[in-house]
Design a protein that fits this description.
heterodimer; A: 296 residues; alpha/beta; 31% helix; B: 229 residues; mainly alpha; flat
Chain lengths: 296, 229
């Protein structure tokens, strides 16, 4: 079975910003969280994938089909929700969905209505009168009702207040937890996706810094503090190292290697703490070299 | 393409209805009162039709751009060419509806006048096609050229096009025609130019320009680097 998508050496340049060369593959059925700070290139990647922006170079495939602008069949497999939700504003949600249904052979009106019910979305209201949360929900229903094999979610909850955001995410994750589709979810708020993601890709300043299995990250990363009198030691697996006198604190991406080394050099009072995925993300995005080539 | 067009007409049905209503009203009034003298060339009627179409299209384009319709449509499984063509068709359909009403109405009332007004109407159709295509070309170019220097380049490009147009006109009539006999019929075009819209060659000229700009508009749209609207 072909990959859900495959980006090869994709480059997109704007004045003062360059995305790529980006190589990224998403296997069918995998949920990949695309994590990065604002202006790191997440949205540009999404726009390239969905055909809203043309990449300067490189190639993109969706389920084995080139993303050619004049052969739009690859878009049948995509459900896309961006950070901007566009509709026929003077039409009701129902009419907007009916309009969309004409373009997708797999569209299920029953599924659309069912999703709207689960989201508690008032379909009879005009799009322009919908609240921000309901606009997101309407976009989600539009993106899901044709049962796409690939769902691209680009910070869909951006701009929502925390209560509405949680409500939208809860409903969304409840629907997506069946694991039937590949999901590419970009966000700078890691907690939004950490519940659902199988893998995480970290993007910073247009470069992919790391792609890793979520569980591998939480299993291997540790915050380790210890006492040791030596200076200028390189610790195995250390991503960062702080020292105050004899007290050291190391963030390790391979805690077993670090602990082994600490045992060998005779470090004392060794304490290791598991790290949350948010803490790990901060360390990945804050420093270090690109590791994407070796990881993914 | 037709799905988009149908949606646009349905979405703008009030303004399209008003526009067609105005045309119908003029036709009914003219039919009841008797159509004006053919020498008047029905300029008033056509002016009202043109303004009605302009208003209808202004309102619909305003919504089209404000609601980021290009972005909406570009996400759908449609080729970019289809989106580009469907944008252009809305004004064409509204205009053709009016022209049809106008021609049917006027020919029913005074059949022999259709010959008098056909070239004028066709010229106007070509002219409207040009304006329609120009609106989208200008929009696409301003999206393409966004920073200050690029805007300057765009201004220079427009100026060059105007100068080129004048040069083509000058070279054609003062240099080319005396040398190439087969171009001589164009002298008639030059002679008739003040009333060019009322003759066959004028209608052909405006429609060719309209088609040319329409093709150019589709080409520019297809080659846009972004459809974010």
């Amino acid at each position: 079975m072909p990959n859900a998508f495959e980006l090869k050496d994709v480059v997109k340049t704007y004045p003062g910003f360059r995305l790529g060369p980006l190589n990224l593959i998403l296997e069918p059925g995998t949920v990949l969280g695309y994590i990065g700070p604002n202006a790191s290139g997440k949205t540009t990647t999404m726009h390239c994938l969905v055909g809203l922006v043309k990449a300067d170079s490189g190639s993109m495939e969706v389920f084995g089909r080139q993303t050619a602008p004049n052969k739009p069949e690859w878009k049948f497999d995509i459900g896309y929700v961006g950070d901007v939700h566009v509709f026929y504003e003077n039409w009701s949600g129902e009419k907007n969905l009916r309009f969309l249904s004409r373009f997708y052979p797999n569209w299920s009106q029953a599924l659309a209505e069912n999703l709207a019910k689960r989201f508690a979305l008032p379909l009879d209201k005009k799009a322009r009168t919908l609240s921000s949360g309901n606009r997101v929900k309407l976009s989600l229903v539009g993106a899901l009702a044709h049962s796409p094999r690939l769902l691209l979610l680009d910070e869909p909850t951006a701009g929502l207040d925390p209560v509405v955001r949680t409500e939208v995410l809860d409903a969304l994750f409840e629907i997506l937890e069946d694991g039937e589709r590949a999901i590419f979810y970009s966000t700078h708020i890691l907690s939004d996706i950490s519940r659902l993601a199988d893998e995480l890709a970290f993007l910073d300043n247009g470069r992919l810094k790391l792609r890793a299995n979520k569980d591998d990250l939480t299993d291997h990363w540790r915050k380790i503090s210890f006492r040791f009198s030596g200076d200028n030691i390189q610790f195995d697996g250390a991503v960062s190292h702080r020292q105050e006198g004899k007290d050291h604190q190391v963030i390790s991406s391979d805690y077993e290697a670090t602990l082994r080394q600490l045992g060998e050099i005779g470090a004392e009072n060794i304490l290791e703490n598991r790290m949350s995925i948010d803490e790990i993300a901060v360390h990945i995005l804050k420093g270090g070299n690109d590791v994407a080539d070796s990881e993914g | 393409m037709w799905r988009i067009l149908r949606a646009e007409i349905c979405y703008n049905k009030i303004i399209v209805g008003i526009t067609c209503g105005i045309a119908l009203f003029i036709i009914i009034v003219n039919s009841v009162r008797g159509w004006p003298n053919p020498t008047l060339n029905l300029r008033g009627t056509k002016a009202i039709m043109t303004v009605a179409v302009a208003v209808a299209c202004f309102v619909s384009f305003l919504k089209f751009f404000k609601e980021k319709r290009e972005r909406y449509l570009s996400i759908l499984p449609l080729s970019i060419k289809e989106v580009g063509v469907s944008r252009l068709l809305f004004m064409g359909i509204v205009w053709l509806s009016l022209v049809l009403l106008f021609l049917i109405g006027s020919s029913t009332a005074q059949p022999y006048w259709v010959d008098n007004i056909i070239w004028d109407t066709l010229s106007l159709t070509g002219f409207i096609m040009m304006i329609n295509a120009y609106i989208f070309i200008h929009r696409d170019l301003t999206i393409r050229f966004q920073d200050r220097y690029q805007k300057l380049i765009l201004m220079i490009l427009y100026s060059i096009l105007i100068i080129m147009g004048y040069l083509v006109w000058y070279l054609l009539f003062t240099v080319a025609i005396p040398y190439f006999k087969f171009l001589e019929p164009l002298n008639q075009f030059k002679k008739d130019f003040p009333n060019v819209s009322s003759v066959a060659i004028g209608a052909i000229f405006f429609n060719l320009c309209g088609i040319g700009l329409t093709v150019l508009s589709i080409f520019i749209f297809k080659n846009r680097k972004t459809y974010l609207g």
